[in-house]
Amino acid sequence: MTPTQREDGPDRAPDAPAERLAGFAGRTAAEAGVGKDPVNLPMIRHWCEAMGDEHPAYRGPDAVAPPTMLQAWTMGGLSGHTARSSVHDELFALLDGAGFTSVVATDCEQEYLRPLRPGDEITFETVIESVSGLKTTRLGSGHFVTTRTDVRAGGQPAGTHRFRILKYAPAARPREPEPPAGPVARRPRPVVNRDNAGFWEGVAGHRLLVQRCAACTALRFPWLPGCADCGSPEWDTIEVSGAGTVYSYVVMHHPPFPAFDPPYAVGLVELAEGVRIVSNVVGVPYDKVRIGMPVRLEFLRVDEELELPVFRAGGED
Q1: I need a labelling partner for 304 at 20 to 30 A (CA). Which of 18, 33, 95, 254 fits?
Q2: pTM of the prediction?
């Protein structure tokens, strides 16, 4: 097989004539190009602000341009450059016609020969340095095209910029696997640690426990290792009655998550004892939940391992 040929098959890459592609190497893509602006302080300032580069060499009366701006002085902008030849378009047309319709930049190499200073007039020439044989990448099969731009300032060599792209035919994406048959996805497991283990032990016993500071008696929820009011690390717990009202709420529509069936209401419930807890509001359509609605605690078994505290609208036993 030649570099541009592959065996027939369902994923066979398109071909482009090898001899025609090789013929583009060394051809001029831009000749006697002139930078649209001389090197100037405003462009240097914008570049440095965008890059977060505060080097003092790029400021003041003796400023130089950051070396990595080399390509910026040769760009044609939306209107392009009159110095550009048709060679580049001919090469892309050949590759497009062979099925290599996608493009991605892969890398660039720059060589700096002298600093560029405000006022320098930029000229340049660009050649197509090489077109590779057919290469296979994770994106797909295609050809690497390398261009070389020689930059001059005041007629003197200032630097060289090589830019490499891949013109490729996108690889076929694998088909999404069908979801496996089986039980409905389980809800995410709560994170249980040494700071909140007592809360989940209470839930397992159908008790909703909140912390009470041993020093100032302030109640707190969610569970924390210390009191936010006085800083004391000492605490005990009380079991709340379960009566409360909807302090605020949201209705979840998107994005969907496994084990949840949107739309559904998530409420911030203010308990009779004064603390607030986030949980589902059940027993009423999601669009009927209202701020101030009375609710009462109940425990919902969501799977064989997990029960959760939720709040049923109505506030009745």
Answers
A1: 254
A2: 0.51
